[in-house]
Design brief:
63% helix, alpha+beta, Heat Shock Protein 90, Sig_transdc_His_kin_sub2_dim/P, kinase, 5-stranded mixed sheet
Amino acid sequence: MHNNILDNKKQIKKTNLFLIVNYVSSLAAILFAGVCYFVFKINLLVAIAFLIFGILIFINSFLIKKNIALSNSSFIYSNNTLSKKLLEKETLLKEIHHRVKNNLQTVSSLLSMQSRNMEDKELQTLLKGTQNRVISMSMIHEMLYMRNDLSKIEYKTYVQELSQYLIKSIKGIENKVKLTIDIPDIKLGIDTAIPLGLLINETITNALKYGIVDDSEGEIHIAIKKEVNKEYVLTIGDNGVGFPETVNHKNTKSLGLKLIYSLTRQLKGSVIRDISKKGTNYIIKFQEIGHQLNPVV
């Protein structure tokens, strides 16, 4: 749509330039006819021929100018129509993101209500984990709805809000968890933002539940570095108790650990566990994903 408008503008500029050349040529022909007859005393018929040639060029320029006026009118109408359609599309997308966010929040509320009515602590924990996953997706749709850019979100802001929510949700408002975030001002599309957000959600949740135990002090760090093309490196982890090197996503029953690897595959990336640091730390390489219709997991 935007390219069509630019093409029309370029075409009008070319036509205007051609019109100017025609006007100059007609004036030059008429002037040359006068010079030929009055100055150089050339045959009257030759002078009249140059005069007629100049007049014809002038008439042609007039007709071209008339066509340009019609083209400009058509261009303005087309431009207004395209702008109106674009505005309608953006409004529709905003409404879609708003409704998706509301629906996800409704699901989250239902999970919360169901969790409170259960006496089984293990089931409560499972429902709380599912609720947090739903909220991590809801936040992305809310950010897309609130901002002018409907295709990408400012990821640093999103990670800060998600991390702070998870810490307060799991450890309470009064906690001893230090959060360190080092993310440049990057914007990611929804097809990358959602699986990456779920991955970060799982890593932080595992750190808060199993790494930084009870009310002990701890630190969670999250950093994203942009590499060449559309490749990124995420370093994320904690300084908690960690878990044995023999445990991995293939031999564990932990859904969170399995999701970390599954979501990394969706992002066309790779996971390396950094055992040189205390606690549980990952180095995750991933790519920015274009529009796709695949499920999140």
